[in-house]
């Protein structure tokens, strides 16, 4: 008798081989192709199945929101798509690249050059100014200085913060800090923008400003956006809403 764990491991191996052989029907127009992923956290005594055979697609230029109860696997899903972690089994393609089988360095490179992240807690570096926070990913990506300056100014103008360039995060309002985080996430011209509850900490009016900004980026720059939100009023401002429960997509609504 093989243990359950051993069988799971063997299954994961086979699924990875299939993924490598491109045995999934990749949609070439999709920015995100997720095929039957599971994510199992092994905590010794208990096993948490955070994702349980989930498949989904996001087309290029689409704005998709994800909603679901706390613990349903939303952040775990974003982590897989954002190449922050590997699924236990299944395949994740972002812009045609299988991100599930990369090593750490490849994943870091992919994130620096192709992905933008916005989190609920803005994760700004407190000792850096607005300008420097937006510039930081470009320094890591080794973008030359004159090009960095050009891009930082472009995105700060886009989010309406060109006159807050020299402010530290503590000298900005919550909504302004989130706009810096958005400018930062855009500075590397990401193919995909990933937002995990970007409006969680703000009041309703500012929430709406942030969402309006995301909608404009989607329409004007054709920016593909995948956003988790707990707010139904925010969720329905996307093109399409995916509902999650127990690590699966249980429903989809098109607007
Ligand atoms: N690093 C981890 N180790 C163990 N369990 C985790 C870890 N991250 C998430 N989980 C568990 O996986 C499930 C899904 O979590 P998460 O994706 O954060 O849910 P959501 O974002 O929908 O609230 C939860 O039961 C959570 O406790
Ligand atoms: Mg979460």
Features:
binds magnesium ion; alpha/beta; binds adenosine-5'-diphosphate; Rossmann fold; six-stranded mixed sheet; single chain; 37% helix; 255 residues
Secondary-structure blueprint:
Blueprint: H1 4-20, E1 30-43, E2 46-59, E3 63-67, H2 74-81, E4 89-94, E5 97-98, H3 104-114, E6 115-119, H4 130-140, H5 145-158, H6 174-186, E7 192-196, H7 204-220, E8 224-228, H8 232-235, E9 240-245, E10 248-254
Helix pairs in contact: 4-5, 4-6, 5-6
The structure holds adenosine-5'-diphosphate and magnesium ion.
Adenosine-5'-diphosphate (ADP) binds next to strand 1, strand 2 and helix 2.
Tell me what the structure shows.
The chain is α/β, with parallel strands linked by helices and 255 residues long. The chain has a single domain, classed as P-loop containing nucleotide triphosphate hydrolases (Rossmann fold, 3-Layer(aba) Sandwich), CATH 3.40.50. The protein has 8 helices and 10 strands. It has helices at residues 4-20, 74-81, 104-114, 130-140, 145-158, 174-186, 204-220, 232-235; strands at 30-43, 46-59, 63-67, 89-94, 97-98, 115-119, 192-196, 224-228, 240-245, 248-254. The strands form 2 sheets. The chain has a 6-stranded mixed sheet. The protein has a 4-stranded antiparallel sheet with strand order 2-1-4-5. The model has no long low-confidence stretch (mean pLDDT 90). Magnesium ion binds next to helix 2.
């Amino acid at each position: 008798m093989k243990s359950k764990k051993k069988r799971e491991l063997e299954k994961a191996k086979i699924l990875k081989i299939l993924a490598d052989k491109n045995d999934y029907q990749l949609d070439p127009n999709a920015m995100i192709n997720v095929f039957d992923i599971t994510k199992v956290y092994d905590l010794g005594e208990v096993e948490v199945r955070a994702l349980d055979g989930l498949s989904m697609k996001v087309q290029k230029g689409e704005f998709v929101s994800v909603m679901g109860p706390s613990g349903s696997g939303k952040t775990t899903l974003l982590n897989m798509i954002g190449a922050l972690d590997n699924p236990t089994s299944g395949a994740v393609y972002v812009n045609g690249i299988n991100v599930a089988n990369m090593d750490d360095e490849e994943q870091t490179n992919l994130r620096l050059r192709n992905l933008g992240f916005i989190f609920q807690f803005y994760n700004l570096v407190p000792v850096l100014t607005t300008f420097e926070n937006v510039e930081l990913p470009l320094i890591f990506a080794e973008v030359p200085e004159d090009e960095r300056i050009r891009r930082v100014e472009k995105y700060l103008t886009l989010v309406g913060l060109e006159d807050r360039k020299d402010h530290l995060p503590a000298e900005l309002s919550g909504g302004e800090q989130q706009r810096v985080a958005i400018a930062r996430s855009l500075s590397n011209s990401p193919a995909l923008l990933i937002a995990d509850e970007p409006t969680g900490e703000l009041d309703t009016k500012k929430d709406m400003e942030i969402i309006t900004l995301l909608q404009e980026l989607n329409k004007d720059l054709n920016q593909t956006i995948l956003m988790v939100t707990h707010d139904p009023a925010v969720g329905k401002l996307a093109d399409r809403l995916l509902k999650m429960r127990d690590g699966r997509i249980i429903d989809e609504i098109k607007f």
